[in-house]
Amino acid sequence: MNKNFDVVVIGAGPGGYVAAIRAAQLGLSVACIDEWKTAEGKPAPGGTCTNVGCIPSKALLQSSEHFEHAREHFAEHGISTGKLAMDVGQMQARKSTVVKQNNEGILYLFKKNKVSFFSGRGSFGKAVDGGFEVQVAGDSAETLVAKQVIIATGSRPRALPGTAFDEQQILSNDGALALASVPKKLGVIGSGVIGLELGSVWRRLGADVTILEGLPEFLPAADVAVAKEAKKVFDKQGLKIELGAKISEVKATKTAVTVNYTDAKGEAQALKVDKLIVSIGRVANTEGLNPEAVGVALDERGAIVVDGDCRTSVPGIWAVGDVVRGPMLAHKAEEEGVAVAERIAGQHGHVNFDTIPYVIYTSPEIAWVGRTEQQLKKEGVAYKAGQFPFLANGRARALGDTTGFVKVLADAATDEVLGVHIIGPLASELIAEAVLAMEFKASAEDIARTCHAHPSLSEATKEAALAVDKRALNF
Questions:
Q1: Which residue blocks in 149-223 are alpha helix, DSSP H?
Q2: Is the pTM of this model over 0.70?
Q3: Largest Cα–Cα distance of the chain, in whole Å?
Q4: Is the peptide bond before 455 cis (omega within 30 degrees of 0)?
Q5: Where does NAD(+) bind (predicted)?
Q6: Which one in 58, 62, 96, 445 has a CA-CA gap of 20 to 30 Å to 68?
Q7: Which of 150, 153, 130 is nearest to 35 (CA)?
């Protein structure tokens, strides 16, 4: 096999494998290195997203949502089920099948696009004439030479200081996705995306879930109206969320974990649980990469320093995704990966950070793009707001899920859409229309004048756009 390539990509997560494929499509010779393996020792490209993140979490969310629907809502549809039971082992087996299908899909795409795949850990060797040596340690131990290198090594979960993950009692997203049974009492530290999604999975299956959040506000990155609605719904579901909790100590035994903390009132509290999920953020994964061998600079957080086009401090070396600045989102990594491949090929890659959507796959789902109302107020931007509830949407009524609303924010003078915020059924799908509208600098009037199918959930977006001008038709 050829060991000299135009491009070598280190990491086969969403940013890496997409960058490799796009570079190959553009006629470049490409290799991609990734060390992730299945329990059987087979290559498992796809990174955190495919193996212990986006994909497995959505599989478990789907299974647990089916279970809750059967328990709570089937009767109103006239469906009798008898006594329900959840086979956690089968649920986990299905999750593993979904993950495996995605792993194999990426390997197929590499083969289809003539990307050479190397199973192992990639690291920098040294700069050489015309490029860089990249070492592969593992099953495919090799020394590759690349004219250009794309770093896409992703991120890893941040542990509490002094409290390491053992994935038995103190769990990262990895351990939380692999529980063999439903814990009676589950603690979660952090009410971000991972904490809310995994907390929701196990709550639906019967766990008593308590989430401890250090910040005084719930979901501060979301629009305040959405965050308020979400907190109300989660409280009603039985997801206990305590804000302003300052963790002082975590003690783990073989059967339980005790979290000592100070609550929002400054009073000492202790939470005893069977398992504890720690989801307090993620850190850039540069361990073993050996960036100093070629002079790639890191920032104070350990992330790789890049410019607006994802160039590192060394010409010919690029970095994308979680390992650089910006939101740690799989689709952001993909956009950067494609853009970098195109820039290497002499094209003009495009990433618009202002139109990257955010999604939380709870029930109800939460999604938004653009600026929130509180951001617009802080920036002194004059705006108009329109909001429409799913309670007034015919398709939502038929689905039996009328929670939440769509909110559209538009410039007061030009009517350009500045932000769209959704909490409700299939918000993750509905947000795509808003992203497209903002990418093309559409006005609220543009959305309002566009024909939407009836009955559909997307009509709520049209009605919210109409409401910007105080002319909603169905509310």
A1: 173-176, 193-204
A2: yes
A3: 72
A4: yes
A5: 190-197, 213, 281
A6: 96
A7: 153
Q: Is 380 annotated as a binding residue?
A: no
> Domains, the chain, ranges and CATH?
4-157+283-351 (3.50.50.60), 170-280 (3.50.50.60), 355-468 (3.30.390.30)
Verify whether residue 348 is a known catalytic residue. no
Instruction: Name the E strands within 311-429.
Output: 317-319, 358-360, 365-370, 383-389, 405-411, 417-424
Closest CA to 36 of 60, 19, 53, 61: 53
pLDDT tens digits along 72-127: 999 999 999 889 999 999 999 999 999 999 999 999 999 999 999 999 999 999 99
Tell me the average pLDDT of the chain. 97
Catalytic residue among 66, 73, 350, 454, which? 454
Q: Are 18 and 338 in contact (CB under 8 A)?
A: yes
**151 carries a ligand binding annotation:** no
153 is in an annotated binding site: yes
Does the pLDDT of residue 1 top 60, yes or no? no
- The reply to whether 370 sits in an annotated binding site is no
Query: Is residue 190 part of an annotated ligand binding site?
Result: yes
Tens of pLDDT, residue by residue over 340-364, are 999 999 999 999 999 999 999 999 9
pLDDT value at residue 130:
87
Beta strands in 120-169 (DSSP E): 121-128, 131-137, 142-151, 155-157
